[in-house]
RNA sequence: GCCGAAGUGGCGGAAUUGGUAGACGCGCUAGAUUCAGGGUCUAGUGGGGUCACACCUGUAGGGGUUCGAGUCCCCUCUUCGGCACCA
């Protein structure tokens, strides 16, 4: 054994051995309990970052631990390889997206291997492999046949920087692109023909299952519930004046229908323009609609935005009162929600109230609170609470909750509408005007229309001879050999669809493919998928709380319907890890600085460029633009992968953000070195020594050390099970500290050596999921031939952890006054007696009447007087 | 505005169910090491107070429940995240 801990040599040595022995390869084994552990696979952007290191270190602890616990562990890794950065690289550097992507993959695979993660590399694939995306094209074709994939001309979110369409989920609440560009001008609305997946068909099921995922963080479920946004209400039909047509509205407050005095339409509503024809309002409406279309939607629909609108010239009738209701176009009405038309009840909706005041429209109070009387003539705001119905015909006097039910029933009976449920969730737009993605397998024929590519003709291979320009048109449009084809139905000339699929489609089923990545007779080998799915533990960043996780849940249902998977939900347990943060250096003149662009210390840190005093300290997520990243490669080089892993796990619990600290990394390195020195000093005299069997009776230093060992086994096991890796590591640190100061450390007798052997052996085993190379090397130094990961995770000896003397805290009136050590065997009365016998307690209690004595077994006595 | 999470030493963080607040690590202090420095080992380290005890005080702030509250309840403040004219 080397006197010094040489991380580089050790890590290379063991990575080679693991690979040679194919140690992490798994196959289905019905005799063993399976455990599918998955971390979100990376986009091959070039290099791994600290977020990956943290995510995958957490996963690797669990994978290795479960393996040692005897589970058949599936722990795969692959690449989310389609996407825009590859095209940007093509535009910026003239390198083909495929070359760029696969070179990045090679580099990053190597980096992951250097971290020592226990992946079954035989299962690796990239989503840009034809052997992967061809199955996605098969899904598309089948979905098209079932009406789950359809094409629609509509207004879609368009990012000017990405030059492509975004799904609703990909637009942030401030109206910017989810990718986070600098100086994002905001997503605009563009009218395009787009393919959609019918996720709304599963809105109810996706929502219901939010209550059946106890292994998911509540906040993720809450976000998904909000996103689906279920509202229970009614549809009401309003007949147009002078026409047989009707306007349908959705409302959750059908109890206020008698108070509806006007109508508001979304600017995109087809009736908006047609109603105005010949009324003299045509020009005004046209201008308003045009203006709205050009406006950033997030701005237009922000709550603070001024309520704007114009009269269409048309009117409809309130079906309950027959009152005439003028029809307006209003900026706050959304075409995508409900029916794009809103019955306006200014007395009971604040938006309508403000709108009515602006245009001098009538107010009719129809719901009265029970404790006061509201007057429509004097009220200054809408009353939106429940109450008793007035001015509402046969529903007068009814409670508003009850009235909602009765009015919906009435509408249904009269053919004027009825109960409806509306969702905020909209269908998933998947068309992207991009090259580097899976082609949508559709052919357009002038005679036969839209024809899916027959299954026997799949895959539609992405051509490689393409010019990437970044104009906003799909680059595939320029590839003649790709576009021009034959119609599969009539054999005449046909044109291929040139848009590609959203890359979130690939990540919606990759976890299924990992179960049978080599299968070529279909997308999934049912038997193997049934063995492995669902994923027992999924780990990744909270930023995917809606996007990826909701799409994956939807896709699982599609694959279930098609018979490829048997599960309802893909991920049983979800762990969302926090971000990796570091302080930023910001100069008032030169912006963000790298740490070495600053000089000085403490209060007087200055910019090297301009000499200006700079601010420091604010913690932000590591990002290139903020110049606060730490390159994992630097860490591995200087400290080793094991230290990097230890730090990520020790510094903070997984769900919380991790604050980067160079000194913290030093601390982790120091700990490993401390363990190394202990072994260097001890391994010689502990080789081929066997630990004592369970139940052995000991005393003195042997007993106390052995007790600490078994307590540590118990603690670390429990902590790993509940993902408290930081406290698991601190428990091992405590054990190491205790070994250092143990009085039996250098004893030569058989008993001491056997206790010591067990102690150091336990340190290695407990540390092995965290610092695997380090543990292997020490394990070998102790004389063991087999890899430490093949060792069974130890059980603790229940007898060894028992204490014969325990510390009892003695309180007087709830305040700590003394601590006494007594034999653990003492009964209640004896404990109380000894507590009262304590000198300090006697002084405090003297002359007072003892009213009560409370005893918490093995913990405390509280004397009340 | 609504919903959710959080607030503990100089710092990162401990404290499964109400029962010794501050484990472990960083930093700092002292001592040791034939000791330049660094490294290593040992000990100390919430604040006040004391030679040392005793004692007082302390988990964002205020109130409450309890023999006992970081933990439970109510109110307030701050931070972060989500949703936000969704009819």
3D structure, described in words:
With 865 residues, the chain is α+β, with helices and mostly antiparallel strands. The protein folds into five domains: 7-13 and 25-127 and 507-577, HUPs (Rossmann fold, 3-Layer(aba) Sandwich); 134-198 and 427-503, no CATH class; 230-423, Valyl/Leucyl/Isoleucyl-tRNA synthetase, editing domain (Isoleucyl-tRNA Synthetase, domain 2); 685-790, Isoleucyl-tRNA Synthetase, Domain 1; 805-864, Ubiquitin-like (UB roll), CATH 3.10.20.590. 35% of the residues lie in helices and 20% in strands. A four-stranded parallel beta sheet has the order 2-1-22-23, covered by helices on one side. It has a four-stranded antiparallel beta sheet with strand order 4-3-5-15. It has a four-stranded mixed beta sheet with strand order 9-10-8-11, with helices on both faces. Helix 3 (84-93) packs across helix 4 (97-115), helix 19 packs across helix 20 and helix 23 packs antiparallel against helix 24 (772-781). The structure holds one RNA strand of 87 nucleotides.
């Amino acid at each position: 054994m080397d006197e010094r801990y040489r991380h580089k040599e050790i890590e290379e040595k063991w990575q080679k051995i693991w690979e040679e022995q194919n140690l992490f390869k798994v196959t289905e084994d019905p005799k063993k309990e399976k455990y599918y552990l998955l971390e979100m696979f990376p986009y091959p952007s070039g290099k791994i970052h600290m977020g990956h290191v943290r995510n995958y270190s957490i996963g690797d602890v669990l994978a290795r631990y479960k393996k040692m616990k005897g589970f058949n562990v599936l722990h795969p890794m692959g690449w989310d390889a389609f996407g825009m950065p590859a095209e940007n690289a093509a535009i910026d550097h003239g390198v083909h997206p495929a070359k760029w992507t696969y070179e990045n993959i090679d580099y990053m695979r190597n980096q992951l291997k250097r971290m020592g993660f226990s992946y079954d590399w035989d299962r690796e694939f990239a989503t840009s492999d034809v052997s992967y995306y061809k199955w996605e094209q098969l899904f598309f074709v089948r979905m098209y046949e079932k009406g789950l994939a359809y094409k629609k001309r509509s207004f879609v979110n368009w990012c000017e920087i990405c030059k492509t369409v975004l799904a609703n989920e990909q637009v942030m609440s401030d109206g910017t692109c989810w990718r986070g560009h600098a100086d994002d001008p905001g997503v605009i609305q563009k009218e395009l023909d787009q393919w959609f997946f019918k996720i709304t068909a599963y809105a109810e099921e996706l929502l219901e299952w939010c209550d059946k995922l106890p292994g998911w963080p509540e906040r993720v479920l809450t976000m998904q519930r909000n996103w689906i946004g279920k509202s229970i209400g009614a549809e009401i039909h309003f007949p147009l004046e002078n026409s047989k047509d009707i306007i349908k509205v959705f409302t959750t407050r059908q109890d206020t229908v008698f108070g509806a005095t006007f109508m508001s339409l979304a600017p995109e509503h087809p009736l908006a323009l047609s109603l105005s024809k010949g009324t003299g309002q045509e020009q005004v409406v046209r201008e308003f609609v045009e203006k709205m279309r050009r406006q950033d939607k997030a701005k237009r629909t922000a709550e603070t935005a001024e309520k704007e609108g114009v009269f269409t010239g048309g009117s409809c009738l309130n079906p309950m009162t027959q009152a005439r209701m003028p029809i307006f176009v209003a900026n706050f009405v959304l075409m995508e929600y409900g029916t794009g038309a809103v019955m306006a009840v200014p007395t009971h909706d604040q938006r309508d109230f403000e709108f009515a005041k602006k245009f001098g429209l009538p107010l009719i109070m129809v719901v009265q609170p029970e404790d006061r009387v509201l007057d429509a003539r004097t009220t200054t705001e809408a009353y939106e609470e429940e109450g008793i119905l007035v001015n509402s015909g046969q529903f007068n006097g009814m409670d508003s909750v009850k009235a909602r039910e009765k009015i919906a029933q009435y509408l249904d009976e009269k053919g004027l509408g009825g109960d409806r449920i509306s969702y905020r969730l909209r269908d998933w737009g998947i068309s992207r005007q991009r090259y580097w993605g899976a082609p949508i397998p559709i052919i357009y024929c002038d005679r036969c229309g839209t024809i899916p590519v027959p299954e026997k003709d799949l895959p539609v291979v992405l051509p490689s001879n393409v010019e990437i320009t970044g104009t906003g048109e799909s680059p595939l449009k320029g590839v003649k050999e790709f576009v021009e084809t034959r119609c599969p139905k009539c054999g005449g000339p046909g044109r291929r669809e040139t848009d590609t699929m959203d890359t979130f489609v690939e990540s919606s089923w990759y976890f299924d493919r990992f179960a049978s990545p080599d299968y070529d007779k279909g997308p999934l080998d049912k038997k193997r998928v049934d063995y492995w799915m669902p994923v027992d533990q999924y780990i990744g960043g909270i930023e995917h709380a809606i996007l990826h996780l909701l799409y994956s849940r939807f896709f699982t249902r599609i694959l279930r319907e098609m018979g490829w998977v048997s599960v309802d939900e893909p991920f049983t347990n979800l762990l969302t890890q926090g971000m990796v943060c570091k302080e930023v250096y910001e100069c008032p003149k030169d912006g963000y600085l790298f740490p070495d662009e600053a000089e000085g210390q403490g209060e007087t840190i200055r910019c090297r460029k301009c000499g200006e005093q700079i601010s420091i300290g604010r913690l932000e997520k590591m990002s290139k633009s903020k110049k606060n990243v730490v390159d994992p490669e630097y860490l591995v080089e200087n400290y080793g992968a094991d230290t990097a892993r230890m730090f990520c796990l020790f510094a903070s619990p997984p769900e919380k953000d991790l604050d980067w600290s160079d000194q913290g990394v030093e601390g982790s390195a120091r700990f490993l070195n401390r363990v190394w020195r202990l072994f260097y000093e001890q391994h010689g005299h502990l080789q081929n020594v066997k630990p004592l069997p369970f139940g052995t009776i000991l005393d003195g230093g042997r007993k106390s050390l052995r007790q600490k060992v078994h307590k540590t086994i118990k603690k670390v096991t429990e902590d790993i099970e509940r993902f408290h890796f930081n406290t698991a590591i601190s428990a091992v640190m405590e054990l190491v500290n205790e070994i250092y100061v143990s009085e039996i450390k250098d004893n030569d007798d058989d008993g001491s050596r056997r206790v010591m052997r067990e102690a150091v052996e336990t340190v290695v085993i407990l540390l092995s999921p965290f610092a695997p190379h380090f543990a292997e090397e020490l394990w070998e130094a102790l004389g063991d031939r087999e890899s430490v990961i093949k060792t069974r995770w130890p059980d603790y000896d229940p007898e060894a952890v028992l204490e014969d003397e325990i510390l009892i805290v003695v309180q007087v009136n709830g305040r700590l006054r003394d601590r006494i050590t007594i034999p653990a065997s003492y009964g209640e009365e004896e404990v109380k007696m000894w507590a009262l016998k304590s000198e300090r307690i006697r002084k405090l209690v003297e002359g007072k009447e003892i009213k009560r004595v409370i005893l918490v077994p093995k913990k405390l006595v509280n004397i009340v007087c």
